[in-house]
Amino acid sequence: MWLPDEALRPLGSRRVLVAVGPDDGPVAQTVVDEVAAATSRFGGVLVTGPVTPEDALACDVVLAIVGSAGQVGTASATQPPPAGYLPRTDSYVPAVQAVVDGLLVLGRGAPMSPGMFGLARHDGRTVVVAGDAAGLLYGLHELVRRGAPALTCPDDVVWDLPVHQVRMLDHWDNTVVHPVMGQVERGYAGGSIFWSDGRVRDDLTRVAQYARLLGSVGINAVGLNNVNVHAAEARLLTDHLDDVARLADVFRPHGIRVYLSVSFASPLTVGGLPTADPLDPGVQDWWASAVRRVYETVPDFGGFVVKADSEGQPGPFAYGRDHADGANLLARALAPFSGTVFWRAFVYDHHQDWRDRSTDRARAAHDHFTPLDGRFDDNVVLQVKYGPMDFQTREPVSPVIAAMPRTRLAVELQVTQEYTGQQQHAVYLGPQWDEILRFPLAEDGRTVGYLAAGLPVGTVHRGDDPVPPAGGLVAVSSVGDDEFWTGHPLAQANLYAFARLAWGEEDPDAVLDEWIGLTLGDDPAVRATVHAVLDDSWRTYERYTAPLGVGFMVRPGHHYGPDVDGYEYTPWGTYHFADRDGIGVDRTRATGTGFTGQYAAPWRDVYESVETCPDELLLFFHHVPYTHVLHSGTTVIQHLYDTHADGYDEVVRMASAWSSIEGRVPQAFFDRVTQRLAEQERSAREWRDQLRSAFFRRSGIADATGRTIY
Amino acid sequence: MWLPDEALRPLGSRRVLVAVGPDDGPVAQTVVDEVAAATSRFGGVLVTGPVTPEDALACDVVLAIVGSAGQVGTASATQPPPAGYLPRTDSYVPAVQAVVDGLLVLGRGAPMSPGMFGLARHDGRTVVVAGDAAGLLYGLHELVRRGAPALTCPDDVVWDLPVHQVRMLDHWDNTVVHPVMGQVERGYAGGSIFWSDGRVRDDLTRVAQYARLLGSVGINAVGLNNVNVHAAEARLLTDHLDDVARLADVFRPHGIRVYLSVSFASPLTVGGLPTADPLDPGVQDWWASAVRRVYETVPDFGGFVVKADSEGQPGPFAYGRDHADGANLLARALAPFSGTVFWRAFVYDHHQDWRDRSTDRARAAHDHFTPLDGRFDDNVVLQVKYGPMDFQTREPVSPVIAAMPRTRLAVELQVTQEYTGQQQHAVYLGPQWDEILRFPLAEDGRTVGYLAAGLPVGTVHRGDDPVPPAGGLVAVSSVGDDEFWTGHPLAQANLYAFARLAWGEEDPDAVLDEWIGLTLGDDPAVRATVHAVLDDSWRTYERYTAPLGVGFMVRPGHHYGPDVDGYEYTPWGTYHFADRDGIGVDRTRATGTGFTGQYAAPWRDVYESVETCPDELLLFFHHVPYTHVLHSGTTVIQHLYDTHADGYDEVVRMASAWSSIEGRVPQAFFDRVTQRLAEQERSAREWRDQLRSAFFRRSGIADATGRTIY
């Protein structure tokens, strides 16, 4: 993964002052430890604790937590300095203070919000200041990412702060191996790094490494278990709190709070109550007392993640209550401890009758949740999948995200590549997420990224505005006990990119570039090749799998590989209605399911009309003949033939490009990627040939280019 | 299951002489025990061991093992009688001997071959004689099946003997739960009754019940483990022989020998040798010594069942050897102990490229094995699936069965309902098996049943001919630890029918009638209703699932429920090539894969021509337009529409019929069948609607009857 020892060489070879003390807590101590390890490895010097002015002034780098007004230290006659802060009387202070003051001027006097940091070059010295330990950690890693230039360049200054208050990874890890889903549901990188045989692992070394990696890119929340909560996992909330505490201890030093997925039926199944009705006082008491015990064990516990009334998970519907009742039940138990409920909006009828053309799964979240807008407590975050269906390669963004102005929202992405190649295919998802986050969903032009961050209309992205209390960006993690963490080594880039986009970075290519450098070093050939493999890989994957917004043409159950009608006659609400004449789902208001009506202007009209609907979503919104001519000028069927053939050819080129850098990256890394690219080539060929054959058999229309159809 | 206590009332209420002794072995003892239990329950008397002539003459029923010439007892001045036999000097002997002599005359002096028995009414007494203990057991149960009439009717006589020397059930039981296939591969009735957690169960009570049931219908061989031999099962041959011995001890008293499925790679994987090459002397020694140890532990061990070079199982191909080399390797190790190898002919390429239209899985067994005819040792039985594919609802019979005159053959059927409703659907398979067994496959008109029994051309089915050394009928068992043994209680009838057809019964309706009486008693309403549900159920299932010989339109993996293209683009060789114009596989010599050429006359020509090919196999052998007119006068597409609608309607009628007998059968039995019929109705509706929709979407041709297509 990223952050090999070598990445800390520039910092580690210098004299570094970390101006924190024992009272600054474990995250500050992590900054000290990182610098200590780096300087000890690369010949530099760590200066910390009580220091003389001369020592301080001799430092090349200063990392300091500053006061609320930006002052270095707060000592006065009446107020002693916080432990570890440089005392104001120190002769070194004015120099640092001048830098800090300069930063503050450039930062327009912003108070130091959580996680915020400033990074400056001044007078030949590099200074990182932050208002809290997490900010200092993030500043440290920004320094690491920037490498030697940040320690040598002329004067420069940057302020940075996270756009999303919560930057969360949900692990769909089962504590025991599930007979169908395995240990990690939709996991493609081995077993869980947390759990083994129902309990937390004895050896948490890898968890500590993982926590360090996540902390380095600003992740600050981790869900420890699958949102599908089975009997074994339900006991984490009660009998196995010590397991949760052990993991919390490992994540805490990296600024990460842990969350549990809980079953809404816990009062029944674990508590022995006769009901789990959210309006029942006994149930409320049960949750209050369960939560109290959690906080006694894990004082900085984050809260709950809940999948309720969804795909068989229990929920408030069983008691005639709605999802606001359900979410608020848990929220009120968590409120005294500042805990948060992440309540998933992924609620739909998974026993749909495929014969019923009037029901549209795409409508479900909006139908269920928008009537509840304003009814959720302040510590409820509604967690909405980015699209109305389920993590497809291409979906429109969910209209729910712009439809609940009085509700805190988090947008959920999927780092684990369920429908996007299962970490067998090299698919860099940064561009997909970037498109989603910058999509101007709201009527006033606000983008999904801003909406999820909860920023008010027209807010400038960074800078002096307060970080809003709402929002967050959440993703399902892709990590397992595989030696490369993510199965496909290049899939590490997705984990990295999610964190960086959740922080607020806006350029997925630049983020990928960061990841390459931090992981594989500075070899320009390697950099160029990894870009060649990954830059367009999501669109390449889309070409050979998901034509024009059609999803779910995958093998049922495991979701890998092509199966045109695999989900066509199922209860899952996932149809394309391809017949001998045409394909696609009519979701218009005029003649279809009316889903377009859930969007604000202009999208309700853009999507409604075949004339204005973007090609890439045409079949998501419309059923058209195979001979329909796209904006691109080609017909639907020829587009399908072309993209599947071209997509495969592109995979061949990706594999060929990769083969050119053997010897320039670690051999095991090279070999694993090579093996996965071979599988991707095999699989892409299946996708190409099966879809081309299946649609030729249906349509009877030949490929105008004359390429072979089997 | 069949054989409740009540079934033995007629016998148990009488005075019964069992003329066997301790030296006649455990099967004879089972006859004694059965009579003892019955008489003790129903007020009769068991007479056995040393008896006075008066005692003997007072008996209503006599069961006796007779000598090779039919004499009762063998005592002479120079030769003492075998223990337990009635001594010749006994005044009772002449009366019994007269009956026996009469039987022998009627039986044209046939020597008493294994399992043979005679049953007669004579002078107000009922006599069963057999040449061996197994025959006596079978005669006893024939008496039980016939019930009171056989004990009261005027003089009557019947000789019976099994058509097939080996009547075998293969259990596809894993000793440990397989992560994908579960404990019983293709099992639909719970876990294994043999195995638990890798070892034989402590409590073998249910195994003893099962053995008794199988013995009562003449099953004489049981394979104890899955033909897919995993690591745990491979050790049955070595480390866990004591487990095999415990099961053998339970089966032995019922005339049943046990067999093990073994891995061809055992010398490598278990033996630690560097090769499993069948021509390697070290490998030969390893097998010889492994087999010797088996027989030291289980002296009447039956032999091996082997799936080699098939679906990933190891085999002789890895060493450049053929299947005769492979089978003979094991046969030669078993020969000194009279053991037998059942070597499966289920060998095909399961990594086929669906793009390749020249390869035809249906050809595979014939292509692989017929060149080896004559090369197999005498104690090798080639086990051939009844059809060229894999246990589909409708296939032509396998041409291999008539193509290897110098090889002992067993025909393999499937009692477990893998592709035929998985014991969720009521499907009585007797009529399918009957069609298969009586199919005149050979050029000289011999039927599959005779061929598998190895009888020479023109042999009369029963009577005075010697039972041939070759052949056998084998089936995959359907039994698990479910309370009704087979999941669907009515599926018990299939287990029963297989055994009775393997014995030589020829009328599946009569066999079903036997099963109903033995299981549910004599209520005429029950009898009529079960017939109404089951008699035509196989053809009903065919109607709503498998049109005109098309198979494999099932969900991949578990094989339950419809999926038109589920196996269309897979490596499994299972295609129908349905497009917008037509459907079916061209297997002709003229324009297709040439599979028709594997048949002897007349079938090579009957199947070759669309004009003569039977409707029910049309799409197995030919690709035709949807508008092709069948012999029945309807088009292919209208046939598909009609049969799917009619099949569903028939299921509704079945469920309705069943509901009429509540209160007349045990309630738990009634409830379980009711629940399964509801599932069958749901599933049949899916089959109906999905296939009608899918083929309407493809063909664009409306249902002429105007019924709804969704």
From TrEMBL, chains A, B:
Annotated Glycosyl hydrolase family 67 C-terminal domain residues: 486-707
Name of the protein this chain belongs to: Alpha-glucuronidase
Parts of the chain that traverse the membrane: none
GO biological process: xylan catabolic process
Lineage of producing organism: Bacteria, Bacillati, Actinomycetota, Actinomycetes, Micrococcales
An annotated GO cellular component: extracellular region
Superkingdom field: Bacteria
Pfam family, one: Glyco_hydro_67C
MF terms in GO: alpha-glucuronidase activity; xylan alpha-1,2-glucuronosidase activity
Domain Glycosyl hydrolase family 67 catalytic positions: 160-485
